[in-house]
Amino acid sequence: MTSGTADPLERLRALQGADLPVHGGRTLAYVYDSGEPEVDRVAREAVAAYAASNALDPTAFPSLLQMENELVGFTCALLDAPGTAVGTVTSGGTESILLAVQGARDSRPDVVRPRMVLPSTAHAAFHKAAHYFGVEAVLVPVGPDFRADPVAMAEAMDDDTVLVVASAPSYAHGVVDPVTAVAAAAAAHGIRCHVDACIGGWVLPYAARLGRAVPPWTFAVEGVTSISVDTHKYAYAPKGTSLLLHRDAGLRRPQFFASAAWPGYTMLNATTQSTRSGGPVAGTWAVVEHIGDAGYLELADRALVAVDAIVERIEREPALRLVVPPDSTLVAMATDSSCDPFTLTDELVDRGWYVQPQLSHGADGASIHLSVSAGTLAHVEEFATALTESLAAAQAAGPVAVDADVVAFIEALDPTTLDDDDFDGLLAASGLVGTAADGGLELPTRMAAVNAMLDVASPPMREALLVAFLDRLQRPVRRS
């Protein structure tokens, strides 16, 4: 058989050259690096071995069922789960959260207009679940320490509430909510309580074993009914796997879907997916087997020591501050008026450190997010140097400003009716990005001005502008 491309792998490597590095500990968002090349090798080989396998039918691929059950068992031990606990392997944290919300909704068919009570810092995946499943998200302001307010959350619960949520930790600020009080309030109302530990669930148990102060959040807390934890984060497994654990099988059952209302096979799914590649499951199982409990303890220690060093470096800079002291591996920092987080982000990216800008929210200003991995520890001195240099450059440039005419243009737009002409008009007015010949976008090399423009927009307008932006990015490429 002839191939349309002489060497597609060569082109693949060329394309990948434009991507962020996934190893080296310098990408502090989106990827999680153990710093161990052998972990990567084991994962690649396991994914390749199972790439064509299908977890749709556990009787057809019993090895995948065995691996999933063993992963759930490992996680149960990690999260202080009782002997009644059950779990499901999903494609990522968002799917785990979607299923937690869907299962809670379907467990209460008597509720016509279901609601869920969330701290305002809960992950956006809960808003996605609200949108998909028709569950109203009731947002409760957090305290000055960015942790959930259990009293205010209890006051927000009513007979239509089907789920209450806490984070361990929250993504934006890296702090653990007071799960004990939140879960107790939910239990007093007879409501499920889900703990979103997608990003912390595989490191916080080890942090506690290392003697660090970790607020209670696992199934050891009475009233916690389900927990989500991502293995493609601090289990250092391949992208996309997560686990959703329930305290007992009865709590999980509404999550399952079956349909015999067609002439084909009776559909039976534990997740939102039907066909599921066995590759991520096998890759995750192989990595967990390879690292093991003692290995994860060591990796957690490396990541947390790296956090300590980064926090100490931030605290030495008068122009920088921690938004809140971190409880885990997530750090949020802010700048004073001598510069801005968006320009500082660009300067760090220019020096080979990818950090994630966070737009202002309510009364809280913009900040910079760092997800620190075990692989970062070997490079913390390099980060310290880059931070000092980047801060000096950002201060020399001064805070980025959005032209008053652009601000007025944005304020005049209606996010509910934003169309292509509006979007093109904003591109022209801002001078930040232009339309390419193929209808796509020509992106600027530095993003501070773009982020500053988004920062002055209302949240609904940000959403509308970014949807329009994504639409322009995802356009067909026709090759002869």
Could you walk me through the main structural features you see in this protein, from its secondary elements to its overall organization?
This protein is an alpha/beta fold. The chain contains 16 helices and 15 strands. The strands form four sheets. A seven-stranded mixed sheet has the order 1-7-6-5-4-2-3, with helices on both faces. Strands 10-11-13-12 form a four-stranded antiparallel sheet, covered by helices on one side. Strand 2, helix 5 (125-133) and strand 3 form a beta-alpha-beta unit. Helix 2 packs antiparallel against helix 10 and helix 4 crosses helix 5 (125-133). 45% of the residues are buried. The mean pLDDT is 95.
Give a summary of the structure in a few sentences.
By secondary structure, the protein is of the alpha/beta class. The protein has helices at residues 8-16, 37-49, 62-78, 93-106, 125-133, 150-156, 179-188, 204-209, 249-252, 278-315, 341-350, 380-397, 404-412, 420-430, 448-456, 459-473, and strands at residues 86-90, 115-119, 136-140, 161-167, 192-196, 226-230, 242-246, 257-259, 267-269, 320-322, 330-335, 356-358, 367-371, 434-435, 441-442. The chain is built from 16 helices and 15 strands.
Strand arrangement within the widest β-sheet reads: 1-7-6-5-4-2-3
Residue-averaged pLDDT: 95
Can you count the helices?
16
According to DSSP, the number of beta strands is: 15
Distance between the termini: 19 Å
Helix-and-strand structural type: alpha/beta
> Strand share of the residues?
5-15%
Instruction: Provide the helix percentage.
Output: 40-55%
Taking the sheet with the most strands, its summary is: 7 strands, mixed
Shape: globular
Poorly predicted runs of 5 or more residues:
none
Oligomer: single chain
Rounded radius of gyration (Å): 23 Å
